[in-house]
Predict the 3D structure of the following.
Amino acid sequence: MNSTPSLRDLSCADDYDPNSMSVEKARETIHRFLIPLAATERVAIRSALGRVLAEDITSPVDVPGHRNSAMDGYAVRHDELGGPLKIAGTSFAGKPFTGAMGVAECVRIMTGAVMPPEADTCVMQEMVTRAGDVANIPAAPEAKIKFKGQNTRD
């Protein structure tokens, strides 16, 4: 009599076996125990935990809906790089900077935080030397900040 072995019989629960089955045979065995799903059902989002989507879901709007920082650093105007900038405030993810960034100013910014509208670039914190409320940011070539918009996400 040729009976189908159980999953437990086919498993490798004990020590290493140099005669263990090949990947191809393992896949064949796994496929024998799979039951394809033929139907789908619509459930409330709170009932969906532990389930598998029947199709991709895409947002009709950009998420997040604002330009944000791709890293911790300083939000600046690219044209003002190369000198000391007064730190006007801080922008956290979930709590944006609400003031206005003046001339020769920057904003300390955290990853995912909203970029101030006046800023066009984020300089990573490792490139900045801070002294009190002043950030000394090197000019573009030294800081490897080659273009406006660097380290930001739209």
